[in-house]
Design goal:
The protein is an all-alpha fold. The chain has one domain. It is 91% helix and 0% strand. It has 2 helices and no strands. It has helices at residues 2-21, 24-44. It starts with a helix and ends with a helix.
C-alpha cells in the first residue's frame, strides 16, 4: 500500500509542478490569438 500511495503522491506533486510552469493566462492569450487569426483568414477567403 505504501508503494501505491507513494506513487500517487509523486504523481500529484509532479502534476502541480507542471501546472505551475504552464501559465494559464499565457495559454488563453495564445489560444485567443490563434482563433482570431483563423477567423480573419477565413473571412478574407
Amino acid at each position: 500500500y505504501i508503494l501505491v500511495f507513494g506513487l500517487q503522491a509523486v504523481g500529484a506533486i509532479a502534476a502541480i509542478w507542471l501546472l505551475e510552469r504552464v501559465s494559464v493566462k499565457e495559454f488563453k492569450e495564445s489560444t485567443r490569438q490563434a482563433i482570431a487569426t483563423a477567423m480573419e483568414s477565413e473571412l478574407d477567403g
